[in-house]
Write a sequence for this structure.
């Protein structure tokens, strides 16, 4: 029931979404980041590294916005009672719909960074494509667990959009997606170890460059993602129970 | 035998800044499969809170609710697979998707086997007469069509308990009639089985046409729970008769109203030697006309209008009685 619920929700999201909905996060934002980085760094900007950084920026932006906005849209459409009162449950639908939206946005991002890099004369070269693909999938799963964690916050708070705005750039910085984490102050570097995308970025850079990946980076990626998943599962259970007990979610 | 719905001493309170509000107090009733139970109440009586508690959207503060024998608190998921709730209004659907896609999606969420989805969607869409527009985006549907689609979606998983919360709200009379007809057919077994239907509505005609039994909720408590016919009988009169008479003032018999079953409500001069009088009659039969003629020994009855007393009158009387 869970898998069918996830697939059906993703399909409904993709069918029901406006054709323009992925344009900002999937095309405009990565294209701008790619262009600015290459203009600022000149020939020093390595194609793959810039593309991966911009791709991860696009992925994180999509996670934060889609997980928040899907909930908001369902609430505005008055669909939440119809979802919550069915056995599949709200979490499966939110994850499925958000995942559908994120996958679409991610596909657009990958396409955009590839095209911009090629147009700039610095095509993206991936030295270890198999390792890179496996790492990219692990990154996607990790990002989704972080999205799930945010879901419980979005369920409790009416201001999901404001929260999404506030979370976007700190993770860009702490994940080492805008600037290397080595230039951050000590306290920020310590904080960045909790951000799974930082370890995902390191692993992707290594796979693209053909350097051997560090087992420690994998360990930290898996450990942080597992923590997100556990906290998200407990958090969502508590939040959904609280919503039923207090009647705090505007369902009808 | 297990009841389709069993509500026992349910209470639900909300904390607000000004204190605790008790939305439901010791609510107790039950309903069986094949029965249509109308739930009546003024705004704020607790109808929607009760629907939310039964449909697992809210936890009860006290008491218990069982759907087909399963408790809504301890067996939430099983309860959700046994019931459907249809909220009135235009919201709650995906506008860009077709009616069929909406039905398939919510059917999947109800746990329907994917091999049955298409067939079941076609069946329920035909049941509510939307088959010709099933593949059109829902945003092009009229309000009445959306409401019928809500009903079709509610039927996808053949629920044992179907809750209809204000199903005809905002519909024009023709669409409201059409929806009532569909619900009536459903109650009669058009879906291949007879679900228990819990119906709340501000339009008392919905209840009057469809319900077998009526429960009245006032101030969070059930004050009446009776078969519809019994409730109407308790109104004490079968009809209100308005008589136009040419002639003198009516005779006002003292003390014989109860015996004759005809009670004068009021009598007003209507000009040009005419009078208009209203009577409540316990039974409308030929002897009633004779009795009315006896009340006007010096007048000539020019016109008689008979309005059967309906649920609306009964509900108004009961509500006003409670308010006094």
């Amino acid at each position: 029931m869970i898998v069918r619920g996830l697939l059906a929700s993703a399909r409904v999201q993709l069918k029901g979404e406006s054709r323009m909905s992925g344009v900002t996060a999937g095309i405009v934002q990565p294209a701008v980041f790619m262009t600015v980085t290459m203009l600022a760094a000149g020939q020093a900007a390595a194609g793959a590294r810039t593309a991966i950084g911009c791709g991860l920026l696009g992925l994180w932006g999509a996670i934060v916005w889609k997980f928040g906005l899907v909930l908001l849209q369902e609430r505005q459409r008055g669909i939440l009672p119809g979802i919550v009162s069915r056995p599949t449950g709200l979490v499966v639908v939110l994850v499925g719909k958000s995942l559908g939206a994120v996958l679409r946005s991610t596909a657009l991002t990958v396409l955009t960074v590839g095209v911009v890099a090629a147009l700039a004369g610095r095509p993206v070269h991936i030295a270890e494509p198999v390792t890179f693909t496996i790492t990219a999938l692990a990154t996607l799963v990790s990002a989704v667990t972080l999205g799930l964690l945010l879901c419980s916050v979005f369920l409790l708070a009416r201001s999901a959009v404001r929260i999404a705005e506030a979370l976007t750039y700190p993770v860009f910085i702490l994940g080492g997606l805008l600037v290397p984490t080595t230039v951050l102050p000590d306290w920020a570097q310590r904080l960045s170890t909790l951000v799974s995308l930082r370890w995902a970025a390191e692993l992707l850079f290594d796979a693209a460059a053909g350097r051997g990946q560090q087992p420690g980076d994998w360990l930290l990626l898996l450990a942080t993602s597992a923590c997100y998943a556990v906290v998200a599962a407990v958090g969502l259970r508590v939040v959904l129970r609280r919503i039923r007990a207090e009647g705090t979610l505007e369902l009808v | 035998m297990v009841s389709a719905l069993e509500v026992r001493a349910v209470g639900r309170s909300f904390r607000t800044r000004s204190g605790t509000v008790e939305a439901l107090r010791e609510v107790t009733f039950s309903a069986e499969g094949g029965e249509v139970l109308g739930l009546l109440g003024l705004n704020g009586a607790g109808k929607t809170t009760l629907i939310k508690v039964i449909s697992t959207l809210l936890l009860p503060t006290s008491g218990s609710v069982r759907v087909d024998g399963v408790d809504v608190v301890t067996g939430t998921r099983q309860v959700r697979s046994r019931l459907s709730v249809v909220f009135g209004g235009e919201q709650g659907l995906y506008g860009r998707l077709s009616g069929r896609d909406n039905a398939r999606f919510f059917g999947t969420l109800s746990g329907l086997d994917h091999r049955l989805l298409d067939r079941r969607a076609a069946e329920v869409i035909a049941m509510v007469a939307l088959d010709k527009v099933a593949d059109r985006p829902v945003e092009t549907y009229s309000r009445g069509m959306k409401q019928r689609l809500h009903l079709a979606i509610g039927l996808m998983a053949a629920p044992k308990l179907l809750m209809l919360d204000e199903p005809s709200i905002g519909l024009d009379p023709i669409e409201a009639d059409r929806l009532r007809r569909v619900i009536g057919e459903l109650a009669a077994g058009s879906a291949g089985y007879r679900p228990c239907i819990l119906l709340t509505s501000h339009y008392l005609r919905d209840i009057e046409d469809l319900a077998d039994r009526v429960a009245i909720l006032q101030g969070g408590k059930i004050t009446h729970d009776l078969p519809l016919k019994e409730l109407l009988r308790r109104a004490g009169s079968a009809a209100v008769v308005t008589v136009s008479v040419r002639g003198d003032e009516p005779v006002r018999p003292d003390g014989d109203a109860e015996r004759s079953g005809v009670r004068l409500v009021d009598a007003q001069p209507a000009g040009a030697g005419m009078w208009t009088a209203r009577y409540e009659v316990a039974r409308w039969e030929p002897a009633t006309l004779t009795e009315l003629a006896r009340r006007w020994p010096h007048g000539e009855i020019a016109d008689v209008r008979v309005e059967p007393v309906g649920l609306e009158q009964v509900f108004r009387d009961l509500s006003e009685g409670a308010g006094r």
